[in-house]
Design a protein that fits this description.
260 residues, 9 strands, globular
């Protein structure tokens, strides 16, 4: 786990043109963020449900070409939408395009419209988590077989807070865990993750803890640091990025102050 704070942005591929998204990605990297995320859906999650939306992996490959420094990934890609071996190959390819900057953010999936309109079986939360449990070893196995192999051990980020299954999978496979919730929830679920790590014989500090915020460093930085959060993610709407990028600059300045 990294010991210095990391600042990330999430730029959803919705309600924007490709030109908007490209401009916002470049502006985000210019602020000095450590990671640039998007998400993996086929329709907007807010606003006009029929608004503009782009496919995330195709988009991320273009971001890998136009950026130079920030790591890139999805918060998160849906395991259900692609065969695990294909997903591993896609991730390996973007890893090479980016020069070794890909993070594979992955989750079990939840947005039923995506499933229904694209012909995937929605199943149940339990069946989707079982599929994720089956997929993660396959992804790692495929990485070991690919030629050329990934440029590095691609970091895996798992999103979600289910205490019996998701956090166990996180303990087994992830380099980063991303969660939502208030401070009390984050602290509690982080402790549950620690316990799973101990049960399987893994050092809890190996897993970076991540969360999203819309607040300023002055409001929540101390609490997040005390809770062991190592990566802080700010949402940025590509069509209206200015306020969110201003907040991002505050967090980057805070990060830099911690490193001095």
């Amino acid at each position: 786990m990294t010991t210095s704070p990391r600042i990330a942005v999430q730029i959803p591929p919705q309600h924007a043109t490709h030109a908007d998204l490209r401009k916002t990605v470049l502006a985000a990297e210019e602020t000095g963020v450590d990671v640039i995320f998007t998400w993996d859906h086929f329709f907007p999650l807010s606003g006009d449900p029929e608004g503009n939306h782009f496919e995330c992996w195709t988009l991320l490959s273009s971001w890998a070409e136009i950026t130079e420094r920030a790591e890139l990934g999805h918060l998160v890609t849906c395991n259900s939408y692609r065969n695990p071996d294909l997903l591993a190959d896609m991730a390996r390819t973007v890893d090479h395009i980016s020069g070794g900057r890909l993070i594979l953010g992955i989750g079990a999936g939840w947005f039923q419209r995506d499933y229904d309109e694209y012909g995937y079986e929605f199943g149940t939360p339990g069946s989707r988590l079982a599929d994720l449990a089956d997929a993660l070893p396959r992804i790692k196995s495929r990485w070991a077989k690919l030629n050329p192999p990934p440029t590095r051990d691609i970091p895996i980020l798992i999103g979600g807070g289910g205490e019996r299954k998701t956090l166990r999978l996180t303990a087994e496979h992830a380099n980063t865990w991303h969660a939502f919730g208030d401070m009390e929830t984050l602290i509690h679920k982080s402790a549950v993750l620690d316990n799973w790590c101990k049960q399987i014989g893994r050092e809890p500090s190996e897993i970076e803890r991540s969360t999203s915020t819309r607040q300023t460093p002055r409001q929540v930085a101390d609490q997040l640091t005390d809770a062991g959060i190592g990566m802080i993610v700010i949402g940025v709407r590509a069509a209206e990025p200015d306020d969110a990028l201003a907040l991002t600059r505050e967090w980057v300045a805070w990060r830099d102050a911690q490193l001095r």
